[in-house]
């Protein structure tokens, strides 16, 4: 057996020090310390805690330290028999606790193994077994262990007098109190662990929602491209027919026909990819929705993360005068994420201010997205929604943006949601106003 010596010595040293925080009870030499609380708590909280080595080292160390302190204070050497009962307590407590922990481990292993055999599935989730035993069961067992160890120490010290009802009541109450402290520590750590897990799951869910919104936006772009592929294929086939009727070498018409066939094959593969992505997205999209405030809170978080990566300081203002549940959250995320990213990337100053205001007007929901960037030149205002148009060029790499962001926004707003989008821009103030019929995005929850 590989014994972690350094870990065992460290934990033992802590227990030996804590053993000095004690009170005398019943007899002058019978002392109750908080060290046992630390030993129990660490056994349950630390995986592969070296319980037996720590128990043995602690028992010897506590006894030796108290002998040394007594010699320093009284300048006399007391017989070891005076401190031996304390060793009895620690050894008894540690070994009983070890038996209990071992039985838990065996139960978990046999329970998982039996459950897997019963279901004939090796991938079955058996995490539910990790909840055994519950903390109430642990409280009861720790009380019994503490009581037995204290009783054994008293028996060694006082012989038959240890059976006195007052002593028995005292060590039972002491055992119960210390076990309650351990129970409280374990409960607090469990609550903290669940809080961390909840936070991790929320962050993972937020990343998943943003990812799906991106894929959803790309699907809109891909669907638009299918029309372009179809038109290109038709033009190629029409060119083949014209070349066949014209007095040109046969190789040209054959080449045009081959091009039409190739485009047709590309179209088939493209549609298969789209169908696969669409089916996966539809399964996810149909399952849930979000409130407007949740959507923009999620966007706010992602924008701060993006701003940090760009070494920019972001001031984000959000005014929501109407809030309702919508199943079009992925479309809305795609729309406003593209608008916000464009504003953040176009900003030339170190500090960027973005403001979103939402309110109802007649039967529509109005979204205003405003930034304090350099503005959009007048000559570009009629072109920015055209697919492929972009003013974003990386002069270091020569890379040009795809130029599909605002084109995608326009398609989502007008074709998917039946709304409209308008632009007003001057240097220092650019506002996109998105108007969407309320009945297109609002879901009445039953």
UniProtKB/TrEMBL annotation:
It catalyses: ATP + protein L-histidine = ADP + protein N-phospho-L-histidine. Its EC number is 2.7.13.3. Residues 331-440 form the Histidine kinase domain. Keywords: Kinase, Membrane, Phosphoprotein, Transferase, Transmembrane, Transmembrane helix, Two-component regulatory system. It comes from the Bacteria. The chain crosses the membrane at residues 9-26, 56-74, 80-101, 170-189. PROSITE patterns: HIS_KIN (PS50109). This is histidine kinase. It comes from Dorea hominis. The lineage of its organism: Bacteria, Bacillati, Bacillota, Clostridia, Lachnospirales.
